[in-house]
Amino acid sequence: MKDKAVIAGGSGLIGKALTRYLKSEGYRVIVLTRNIPKEKSGDIEYIIWDYREPGEWLKSIEGSEAVINLAGKNLASGRWTSGTKTAIRESRVNLTQNLVKYFDMLDDKPSYFISASAVGYYGNAPNPVDENSPRGKGFLAELTEDWEKSALAAEQSGIKTACLRFGAVLSMEGGALPRIVGPVKYFAGAIPGSGKQYFPWIHIDDAVRMIHFLMQKKSTGIFNAVSPNIITIEELIKTAGEILKRPVIFRIPEFPIRALLGEASEIILKGAAVKPERIISEGYDFKFRKIRQALDDLLK
Length: 300
What we know:
It is built from 10 helices and 11 strands. The protein is of the alpha/beta class. The strands form 3 sheets. It has a 7-stranded parallel β-sheet with strand order 3-2-1-4-5-6-10, sandwiched between helices. A two-stranded parallel ribbon has the order 7-9. The protein has a two-stranded parallel ribbon with strand order 8-11. Helix 1 links the parallel strand 1 (4-8) and strand 2.
């Protein structure tokens, strides 16, 4: 069967939206999950899996058109203690390594493998970067490099593979945007740090449409899953304020953010001007190219 899509991490922000989208496109969608949701859709198949062990769940992957790996512990869940870092690495690198290893156990392997990645690969780049730019420095950059190597190893099994380096996925159903917009609505919006740090972003609709686009083309390699509209975090928050008709007059110095979050503060205080060169060259047409357009859609 070549109309079957299997999603690991289907209960997350992108996974939920992708499941709905692929169902609307006529796919049979199977979600690999640790816990079957209480309020599940009747036409979505949920299968309990444990990436640490090959089990009955592997049969669900057999003969699929695509396996989409979106699994991973939330990076913005607090300070990065040594234990948190280990859990983050386990949920990305180790999980992906095992999943790819299990592909070789299948008689009818998936036609295509897409694995999530992150723009954290570029670190705090001072100049605009694209898919050919070198890796940056720091925990996220090193983690992302290992994560992608784990995924791209699937090509050794003859499976076409792509990695999508996601920026912040904008949706009011989760992720960063509700946490940013909440204070703005109550006249408490504030710019973190200098506000000049770049904020790579993508609208949730483009995130799922891009995955489907690559599934159809079976394109391989690294793709930056970000809008071509490069902005700073100050532009994001002030644009939200304009749309909501709320002034944004406060600033939060870097020090208390670093004191509260430690190394994890780099998610807020650092960024890179990331360009989606490869996906554009493949012919993908963004639905939401400008931040004003995206926020108008999400906030109104």
